[in-house]
Amino acid sequence: MSVTTVAGLDELVREVEDPELPHVTIGDLGIVRSVTIEGVVATVELTPTYTGCPATEQIRDDVADVIVGAGFVPDVRLVLSPAWTTDWITERGRRRLRRAGIAPPSCAAEPSVTHVEPPVACPRCGSRRSRLISHFGGTACKASYVCGACQEPFEHFKAL
Amino acid sequence: MDALLTYVLRQGDRALVLAQRLQEVITHAPEIEEDMALANLALDLIGQARTLYTYAGQVEGLDHDEDHFAYWRDQHEFLNPLLVEQPNGDFAHVIVRQFLHDAYALPFWSTMTSSTDEVLAALAQKAVKETGYHLRHSRSWVVRLGDGTGESHRRAQRAVDALWRFTGELFEADDVERELVAAGVAADPDSIRQAWQATVSEALDEATLTEPAAGVMQTGGRSGRHSEAFSYLVGELQVVARAHPGASW
Question: Where in B87-216 does DSSP place strands (E)?
């Protein structure tokens, strides 16, 4: 698909999906900082979620593929500042996380240290009778919970 | 070596070496959730190390990438403090080492958010969030072990006593640090020590553990003088990269 406008490319880039979060796009996650076009070169700035997140490289490659597909030379940059926060995850992103069985994060604003405070609502049955199993989960961004009502284990996207 | 390059490598090596030690524990933690936790801590530290090594390559100006600093330097070229290279021992030892480190790393990164060096300040903004999470985890385990059973208390105390002499090095100020502190690039070791001391004293007290008396501190890691155990760590870290130079997968 060939696009000619920044707005068109911006839309395509934001639809790239996170490889570890089913059906959640990088636009949903709020990690796309800017999309600019200068001549044949399209520059996209991304903010990594965690410094060690292995999905970052996959996302960078996927974004480059989209840019090439749109007919531009890709220049994908990672910018660390300002640091990403889960508060940048959009409402649509939060709905999609819940649908994927992952409880979305609460508000991370001040204090700046991450929180995982129960009670977190179970993404399957909605009960808040959940119990923290571990502050850590299968990826850096998640913590492990179990629901006391439906007994399902689930992951919670930590507020950061 | 350039002061800034030395400083960046010291911090990168601190993160990488501790991550390597943590990876050795994975599958040996007391519960599977803890295996995941330690892996997550290691992952964050590797992420920080990668950013620091990439920056070191830019500061050095010799076109070295992050892999060069991790895989192609020899033991004496690593500049991490001795604390993070200490062998794992039992779980209490792993956790106490982590706690003593995290109690340093949080005020370090917090101070670095206002560094005059833009790259370090930007990394600090991210690292401070991750490190706060690490400290909460390691601190809660120190309290749980110290104030747990007689056996867990004994082991936690043994770890504190064994590791204490490696803590002084974290706050050592040499010419590199002094020059960069004056330039507003580096964090002032004295103020970090105060924050560290407050965090550690409070946690040990809550954990019913005894803080060791001030004594002689072992140093040298940040100048490239390491323990024998460190050579095995470096050997394992580098063996694949050196056996297959330039390989990718």
Answer: none
Q: Has residue A118 got a pLDDT over 60? A: no
Return the SS3 of A129: coil
Domains and CATH numbers, chain B: 3-243 (1.20.1260.10)
Q: What's the angle, vertex CA B174, arms to CA B168 and CA B176, rounded to 5?
A: 125
List the one residue out of A32, A68, A63 whose CA is nearest residue A48.
A32
Q: pLDDT-based confidence at B148, cuts 50/70/90?
A: very high
A80: nearest CB among B43, B45, B123: B123
State whether B50 and A114 contact (CB < 8 Å): no
- Backbone region of residue A48 per phi and psi (left: phi > 0; alpha: psi in -120 to 50; beta: other values): beta
pLDDT of residue A49: 87
Contact B83, B160 (CB under 8 A): no
With an 8 Å Cβ cutoff, are B51 and A84 in contact? no
Q: Where are the domains of chain A?
A: 6-78, 89-157
Window 95-114 of A: residues touching B by CB (8 A cutoff) are: 112-114
Is the bond preceding B107 in cis, omega lying within 30 degrees of 0? no
Looking at domain A6-78, its CATH superfamily turns out to be Fe-S cluster assembly (FSCA) (3.30.300.130)
Q: How far is CA A143 from CA A53, A85, A114, A133, in A?
A: 15, 16, 11, 8
